[in-house]
Structure formats: structure tokens, C-alpha cells
Amino acid sequence: MEKIALIVGATGIIGSNLAQELLAHGWTTYGLARNPRPDAAGLLPVAADLLNPAGLQAALADLAPTHVFLTTWMRQDTETENIRVNSALVRNMLEALSPKKSVRHVALVTGLKHYLGPFEAYANGGALPPTPLREEQPRLPLDNFYYAQEDEVYAAAERDGFSWSIHRPHTIIGKAVGNLMNMGTTLAVYASICKETGRPFRWPGSEAQWHGLSDVTDARIIAKQLRWAATTEAARNQAFNITNGDVFRWSWLWPRLAAWFGVEAAGFDGTVHPLEAELSQDTAVWREIAERHQLTEPDLNRLASAWHTDLDLGRPIEVMTDMSNSRKRGFLEYQATEDSFFDLFEQLRADRLIP
């Protein structure tokens, strides 16, 4: 059967990698964004604002996608606003497509805040769940825009008869410029600044994260899981965690990242050193580095999302994810985490985003 994909958030870290995955497997693929870019050869751009229902309907007038992949969100000042805005993104999209009756499957990407609670909850030491995190763990008694987005998908599936899948990655490692949550590029920029200024590559996070077990999600492996779930009967109407499939300790990985850049690694010293505060002083430094090395992005804030890296690395518990639900249904892909970072660093260097 013909597979016509609509990726919502095609310029993001997940959406751009998903576009490459689907195109490589012969899908007709449309990429929707407010300002679409032709990042992938063959991707068909769609310009639309998800908060403008009339404009969205007009942009989708000639499209009849069979599969919809929701990979975007908009950060707001409060969780109440996150719920209002981000549920509307999903609702408006699925309502615009509803009259066409073409959609067979909808995939929604959320994340581990499903288990940990919204940013301010775990950042302020709220109740933390047992790990490894498992899909059957109940929702927390907290406001959470992920829950609101899921509920919009469930309601539309009931109305229109499509299947769905929910995908919950840990920290995403992959290339994107202007992304809200981008640890890999943030650490690459930080390490590059350390090398240029002679500073040590100092661990910014908590003792629990430094010594505890963790995992991450390569943008390429979540792209593979999204394609798999969209075309696998056993994956219908399921929620799936998605990580690389290995675990590591930052105390092991941090020196390896430092060695790649040729900088001195400094581990946990008893104090949290937030990157957001440190990098906020480096805007002019990065601009000078970019000019000296003829880099393509002189704006530090377009590359680094230190606030989100601080939240991840500052958690007071180790965080790892169980992958049993997709494994037992046939998804067996694996990605070595060390290579996720090194592959990203090589790509950033080749694209002249870091020196």
C-alpha cells in the first residue's frame, strides 16, 4: 500500500532524521514546519502554523497523508500554558486531516517527562519514579502536556479509526540548529569553547548523574522505531520507550568526550556547575571562535540549549529506560552511545558548526 508521510516538525532534531529514514525506504514524505528547509533531498516542504487552524487547513488542502508523525512542541512559561498550546498543536493537525479519511496511523513523540513530570517538577526535587522506567507505569498526579497530547491522539483515533503509537525517548543525540533540547551539540560547543580558552571540560551536573547509570536516544534510532511502529501490526496502539539499547555512566563517558576534543576532563567535584550560567558569559567568545574558524553559525544560542542539558545532567537520580515492550514486538535495533556522540561531532565539524 502507498505510504504518504506527513512529518510535523520536519526541521527538528527528530523530524529531520525521520525524513531521511522514510525517504531512504521509498516513502513519499512531506515535511511541515513554520519555516521549512530543504534539508533532505526529496522532502516535500509544507509551510504552516499549527496554531492557525484556517491557515493549516489551507496548507493541507491538497495532501492526503496515510501516516502522520508528530515530532514538535512549543515551550511555554508554565505547564498550564504548555498544556493549552501543545494540545492545540495536535488537535488542530488531526482535525484538519479528519475530513480526508486518509490517515491510517498517527505517531506522537513525547519523552521521559511522562514518568518524571514536567520540567519544574523534577528540577525542584519532586517525587521521582523507580527506574528503569517502564511503559506500564501510571501517569503522575501532575499537570503534564504530554498527557494532554496523548489524549488528543486517543480522541482523534476513536473518531477517525486510525491506529496510533506513542514514542518516549530519553535525551536525543543528533544534529539540529535552533533546537530547544540538544545536549549533543551543547556539549560539543562547550568542549570547543574549553579548547579555545584553555578551560577544563568540567562536569556540570549532579553526583547522582555522574555516578549513576544512564542512557540516551540517537535521533537515527528513534527514526527507525517510528517507521517500524507505523508499519508493524504488533506495534499498533502501543506506547514505546526508545533508547540506544545500552547503558553507561557519565563518569565513564565524560573523559571520552573530552579526549575527542583534546581537552582536560574534570569530573564531579562536589558542586553542581550549571552550563546555562557558564555559557551565558560566552556569547562573544563563541562569535570570535566562529569568525576565526569561519563557522556557519556565530550565534551561540542557536546551537546550545544549556537549560535543558542542565535539567538532564542535574537530576538527583540515575535515569534509565526499559525497552522490553518494543523488543518483544520485534524492534531489535541498537546504537552504541559513544558512537552517537562521535558521529554527531564529526557531522558538526564537517558542516562547519564547530571548529
UniProtKB/TrEMBL annotation:
Positions of the PRISE-like Rossmann-fold domain: 65-355
Pfam families: PRISE
Sequence intervals crossing the membrane: none
Name the UniProt record assigns to this protein: SDR family oxidoreductase
